[in-house]
Write a structure and sequence with these properties.
By secondary structure, this protein is α+β, with helices and mostly antiparallel strands. The protein is built from eleven helices and four strands. GO terms for molecular function: metalloendopeptidase activity; zinc ion binding.
Length: about 300
């Protein structure tokens, strides 16, 4: 399927490179676990089963975790109407439409391909944004679906999740099995944890780099589709400021899904720590949108 969203070859190249590197890492990780645990069938079956579940049910998992609910046209006529118009303009299948009843102003897209995807917005976002700002955010989210980077980031995140689970399992296994293990078992456990931590760290950095770039790509594509980069910039500025006023406890709950959000739940971080952020800085995003606005000329702010 080819939509009218402008293709981004640099995004495609980055996705392919990231998947290739993570694929090599994943094969090495599984091989290391097979050697260390001496159980080919167990490791392969568990790894394959979890990857299958992550890919096929990513949309349902994300909606459940964020308390999102699929809504009909009758329940959310305005939201459906905006997505209908954007999908027609982009010549792409319409995703399912969902709403999460939380005051945190945000949106995300998820799903394994454009024919099986969901765009979810929070009630906090709907309450705060003007119609043209909401359109800009939804165009941004739809570009994630059209570029298929939603599926890529979902699969890419899987390896880190598995590595984290192995470390957690090993920790609790050691905690509750203390005193009943010999030195060989403890050495084996330490090696499994060491390999898992290394895999998690490498996958973490690779995924964050891809995530930051795909947000810039979605900003570009969304702004070009609507022809109103200033509306998207306005939404970014407004939501970033409003999220800072949401209770930290609520934001920490949502932090695990930062890579999927329109704007990060806990905000971008400065300096060297930006390397570990899921999103580029607000300044980077606004600067790019200003350049797009200049390219489009006076018509950029006057489209209806």
């Amino acid at each position: 399927m080819h939509s009218r969203f402008q293709p981004d070859r640099r995004l495609t190249a980055r996705m392919l490179v990231t998947l290739f590197l993570l694929g090599l890492l994943y094969v090495g990780f599984v091989a290391a676990l097979i050697v260390l645990l001496n159980s080919v069938i167990l490791v392969v079956v568990i790894a394959a089963g979890l990857l299958w579940a992550q890919y096929w049910f990513s949309d349902k998992i994300a909606l459940y975790a964020m308390h999102g609910r699929i809504v009909s046209r009758e329940e959310a006529p305005h939201l459906h109407g905006v997505i209908d118009r954007l999908c027609a303009a982009a010549d792409m299948p319409k995703p399912e439409v969902a709403i999460a009843r939380t005051d945190m102003p945000n949106a995300f897209a998820t799903g394994r391909n454009p024919n099986h995807s969901v765009v979810c917005v929070t009630t906090g976002l709907q309450r705060r944004l003007e119609p043209e700002e909401l359109e800009g955010v939804l165009a941004h989210e739809l570009s994630h679906v059209a570029h298929r980077d939603v599926a890529v980031i979902t699969v890419a995140s899987f390896l880190g999740v598995i590595a984290g689970l192995v470390v957690r399992f090993a920790f609790y296994s050691e905690l509750f099995g203390r005193g009943r293990r010999d030195q060989n078992t403890l050495a084996l456990l330490a090696m499994v944890v060491g390999v898992s931590i290394a895999v998690y760290a490498i996958s973490f950095v690779l995924i964050r780099a891809l995530s930051r770039y795909r947000e810039l790509a979605a900003d570009r594509a969304g702004a070009m589709l609507t022809g109103r980069p200033s509306a998207l910039a306005s939404a970014l500025t407004k939501l970033t400021g409003d999220i800072a006023r949401i209770p930290t406890r609520d934001l920490r709950t949502a932090k695990a899904f930062n890579a999927f959000y329109f704007t990060p739940a806990l905000g971008a971080v400065p300096g060297f720590r930006q390397l570990f952020s899921t999103h580029p800085s607000l300044e980077q995003r606004l600067d790019q949108l200003a350049k797009i606005s200049a390219q489009l000329g006076p018509a950029a702010g006057s489209r209806s």
